[in-house]
Amino acid sequence: MTPYLKLIVSLPALLVLASCSSTDNTTKTDTVSDTNANNSNSESDKVLRIAAAANLAGVLPTVIEAYQAEVIYHKDGQNKDSQNTDNPKPKIEVTYASSGKLFAQINSGAPYDLFLSADQAFPAKYAQQQANTKSPVQAPFTYARGQLALYSSNQDLSSIKTLDKTSLQQLFITQPNASGNTVKITLANPELAPYGASAKAFLQQQGIYYELNDSKRLIQAENIGQAFQYAHTATTDYGFVALSQLISAKVEPSKYLVLQPESYPAILQDGIVVSEHPKATDFSQYLQSESAQKLFADAGYLPIAKP
């Protein structure tokens, strides 16, 4: 057979081999692509991202630590540490800010999985937004009830038995501060921070808010964390802060007064799952558990009503 004929005979076989090779490469590429996608999803599931109100900075790390160390009980009665199971607890990353700021970030597409607000309004608003777009959404849940306190890092408040209009006027208006200047009081932005809104409502109820505001004695902080820093560093003379912050910082009890819970709107704190992360619901349920609620109580929160 001539070389020319040999080439003609061999050509169909080469085409068949090339076709098979092309098919195999396409299949492998698709498989690798699917595998990479699955690995990407698996990696993202290993991190739970929480948007948390600033007042939680003192207690949430402890709650997270307890959650990740929680012992899982199996149907056979045996227990195994959560980190050694086939479905381990995720790494948890937390961003702290005012509830209003976090709500705006979530609406702008920030990649959070769980939103822990300092009020009930923002989670309810998020749920309503999702319902309007017919997107699946879980109902908000209450995980804590905050307490408000008046704090001064350079004043002894132990002699004051109750905070009413008379005592507040004496503290804020009648007597100057140690430098002889006008007293300054900080509270978190009432438009963004529920603790600030409750502090404003308390001062309004006492009939003293507008007098303080008009005389520029009130210094507005971005969130409750910043309000605490202003008071703690004596940037302001007094601050309306979360009791949990004072307990976390181990502040002497003589430096603060806890407001009566009935003297301001209840600071019921709700959370809501904002993604499909498989562990977001699991952690939200843990927040409502007896063990987590004990940690919240130790940190200065009031018990939440059982559903």
UniProtKB/TrEMBL annotation:
Keywords for this entry? Metal-binding, Molybdenum, Signal
Q: Which family does it belong to?
A: Belongs to the bacterial solute-binding protein ModA family.
Q: Where is the composition biased (Polar residues)?
A: 24-42
What is a single molecular function from GO for this protein? metal ion binding
**NCBIfam families per the record?**
modA
Q: Which organism is it from?
A: Psychrobacter pasteurii
- This one is known as Molybdate-binding periplasmic protein
- What does the entry list as the binding residues for molybdate? S99, I224
The region called Disordered is annotated at 24-43
Q: Which positions, given as ranges, span the membrane? A: none
Query: What is the top-level taxon of the source organism?
Result: Bacteria
Q: Which GO terms describe its biological process?
A: molybdate ion transport
Instruction: Quote the Gene3D superfamilies the UniProt record gives.
Output: Periplasmic binding protein-like II
- Please tell me whether the keyword Metal-binding is annotated for this protein: yes
Q: Where is the signal peptide?
A: 1-24
Metal-binding keyword on record? yes
